[in-house]
Amino acid sequence: MNILISACLLGVHCRYDGQASVCPHLAQLQQHYQLIPVCPEIMGGLPTPRQPAELCQGRVYDRSGRDITAAFARGAAEVLHLAELYQCRYAILKERSPSCGSGQVYDGNFSATLVAGDGVLAAALKEKGITVIGESQIEKFFL
């Protein structure tokens, strides 16, 4: 089974701060599943590193106030295309991200406050019927 996974969870240094966020369960996952790495922000044309971004009223803004919603939408569209090509029914995405967050994202004020909601990619995948889980729920679903 093919599973989309946030590239940063695989050790790719693509987060906004140029870092990775390696998932502790990678070895187990790779033994049983084909992991398809994606970074919708990079795929949407944003650089690494980049300013942090947050969702606010359906738009994505970086810390300087620049609206970068179009790049997030482009990246989500590219990932949706990969999901279709690889027939992915599941995605393991970085929690709390304005792209990948599922169920909780930052509130748009850059105050480290979480609110209910989905990132741009997570919402698009769910709309297409793909199950989205965060990295903290890997054991519950796959191991």
Percent strand equals: 15-25%
Strand tally:
8
Number of helices: 5
Q: Give the H and E element order.
A: EHEHEEHEEEHEH
Counting structural domains, the number is 1
Q: Average pLDDT, to the nearest integer?
A: 96
Sum up the overall morphology in one term. Answer: globular
Cα Rg:
14 Å
Please, what is the oligomeric state? single chain
Helix content: 25-40%
Structure class: alpha/beta
The description of the largest β-sheet is:
4 strands, parallel
Residue ranges: pLDDT <50 for 5 or more in a row?
Answer: none
> Which strand order does the major sheet show?
2-1-5-8
Termini gap: 14 Å
Describe this structure in words.
With 143 residues, the protein is an alpha/beta fold. It has one domain. Helix content is 29%, strand content 22%. The chain contains 5 helices and 8 strands. The chain has a 4-stranded parallel β-sheet with strand order 2-1-5-8, sandwiched between helices. A hairpin with a 7-residue loop joins strand 6 and strand 7. Helix 3 packs parallel to helix 4. The radius of gyration is 14 Å and the shape is globular.
